[in-house]
Amino acid sequence: MGVSCGSYLRDRCSRLFPFFSDPALRSAFYLKLALVLLHIVFVGVLFLFDRDLIEKTKHEPWYTAMYALLFVATLIQYFVTAGTSPGYVIDVQKAIDERDAAARRKLLASNIQKAVDDRDAAARKTLLASKQPASSKNGDVVITVDGRNNCRGNTTAWTKLVMSLSPQRSSTTSLTCSYCNIPQPPRAKHCHDCNKCVLQFDHHCVWLGTCIGQGNHCRFWWYICEETALTIWTSILYTGYLKSNILKAWWADIILIILLVALSISLIFLMLLLLFHSYLIMTNQTTYELVRRRRIVYLRGIPERVYPFSEGVCRNLYLFYCARSSSSMYRLERLPTAQELEDKSRPYTCYDVLSCRCC
């Protein structure tokens, strides 16, 4: 009886909370919970000990309201980024193949309608010429449709698209992911943690529990920016409290000093991460491409200081912040030609600087 009740409760919990049955999802859930609790602890301890901040809140509520707004916005941005798809290749492949199939059906329907209209016109001409009813043996409609439209064969629309983006690799074998068994476009990589191929793969973030790719890289940058601003503001509040209340309560000072040291270490890490990803955005690179440049097939033979996918700083910023405002819109980039690589590897001259070639 007890065993059956226990199994029933486990099954019930698994249906209501599916992440508890999956070790990876359960670990990601615990990490998210730990991150939220850390934010609450750092802010809660500050308001618990700092009486001056509470008095300031009474006289200047806007100051605390702005801090609370940044705190809430940071947590919301965290969960939005974690819940946004990084741009899985299989989802984009299905969308393109479905769109291609719909176009084929539409073309087939138009060809059928055209054939029926032609048959009816021919029948009317025969009727007018002979003044007799049309023979029933001519009732079958024979439709001839171009083979490229009525048969998909072994090459799908997605495969054709990927092949057109990767002219250097002529066979589909060199493009196909051995795990997902689908052709990979340039800059895509299979993530072993998510077990999916990701467009413009950057890295797998453990704290977010998801990959960072083309679909959520922009939101990830904004989350780092908000987290950095929140950490700086909290560190300023901690420092102000310690300056005015040092030695009043030694145990409280020790707690706040330990938390301030942890905040300082986090702030250094966040600022370095923010600067690093800002550099990647301006040069249109990913962490994976920068770290594993010599191992990536489409980057072999390209000089280190040449950024093959960069279109200038201004254009890169526009494409990153503005053109990817929706996670459902993805941009598949083709491999640059030899002439384009030669132009990008050309040293800058005074004329290039004046003409804003880098932009």
Keywords summarizing the entry:
transmembrane, mainly alpha, transferase, acyltransferase, transmembrane helix, about 350 residues, two-stranded antiparallel sheet, membrane, elongated, single chain
SSE inventory with pairings:
Elements: H1 2-16, H2 23-49, H3 51-59, H4 61-83, H5 89-130, H6 147-150, H7 157-165, E1 189-191, E2 196-198, E3 203-205, E4 210-212, H8 217-245, H9 250-283, H10 287-291, H11 313-321, H12 338-345, H13 350-354
Structure, described:
- The chain is mostly helical.
- The protein has two domains: 39-87 and 211-354, no CATH class; 89-132 and 154-198, no CATH class.
- It is 61% helix and 3% strand.
- It has helices spanning 2-16, 23-49, 51-59, 61-83, 89-130, 147-150, 157-165, 217-245, 250-283, 287-291, 313-321, 338-345, 350-354, and strands spanning 189-191, 196-198, 203-205, 210-212.
- It has a two-stranded antiparallel sheet with strand order 1-2. A two-stranded antiparallel sheet has the order 3-4.
- α3 (51-59) packs across α4, α4 (61-83) runs antiparallel to α8 and α8 (217-245) runs antiparallel to α9.
- The protein is elongated, with a radius of gyration of 30 Å.
- The chain starts with a helix and ends in a 5-residue tail after the last helix.
- Residues 132-154 have low confidence and may be disordered.
